Amino acid sequence: MKKILFAASECVPFIKTGGLADVAGALPKEFDKNEWDVRVVLPNYECIKAQYKEQMEDVAHFYTGVGHLMPNEYVGIKKLELNGIKYYFIDNESMFGGAKPYTDPYGDIRKFVYFCKAVLSILPSIDFRPDVIHCHDWQTGLIPVYLKNEFAGSEFYQGIKS
Q: Using H for helix, E for strand and C for coil, what is the string for 39-100?
């Protein structure tokens, strides 16, 4: 069975500001579940509707460093299965709190640098080693860079494509 991880900053039905959410919400459902294990990872924004927040279960948490500006950041992992798709949510109130998913350019860059590192960091904790990580839009643009330059030395990450 082939494995794909979709990484996105928004996804219908959880959070939507534009077309990215529509694509990230629709695409995973189109794969044949007998041939593909498709999962999605998103930020756990404070503004996600309560009906979904209440269904999320805690999976694990740990701390990771993201450069010298964020040397020890909390990474919580929450999970929700909906319509046969497993969704993981990176939980960090200081990064993803607030009434909107996007706030200001400096803050958004900082939180998505963190998000990219967290996406790769959670994979052993959720026991999922994808064949491909599908990175959606600029918010996930550092995932391939981190994968090649920071995570490639670990046997777990070797051979993962993006």
A: EEEEECCCCCCHHHHCCCEEEEEEEEEECCCEEEEEEEEEEEEECCEEEEEEECHHHHCCCC
64: nearest Cα among 24, 106, 122, 110: 122
Enter the pTM of the model: 0.96
> Tokens 């999976």 belong to which residue?
59
What's the DSSP call for residue 151?
Answer: I
Cβ burial 91-109 (10 Å sphere, 16+ → b, else e): bbeebbeeeebeeeeeeee
Burial of 58 (0-12, 13-18, 19+ CB in 10 A): exposed
pLDDT digits (tens, 9 = 90+) for 94-128: 999 989 999 888 889 999 999 999 999 999 999 99
pLDDT digits (tens, 9 = 90+) for 28-57: 999 999 999 999 999 999 999 999 999 999
Instruction: Tell me if residue 20 falls in helix, strand or coil.
Output: helix
> What is the Cβ-side half-sphere exposure of residue 67, based on CA atoms within 13 angstroms?
9
* Lookup: tokens for 156: 């777990």
Tokens 């529509």 sit at which residue?
22
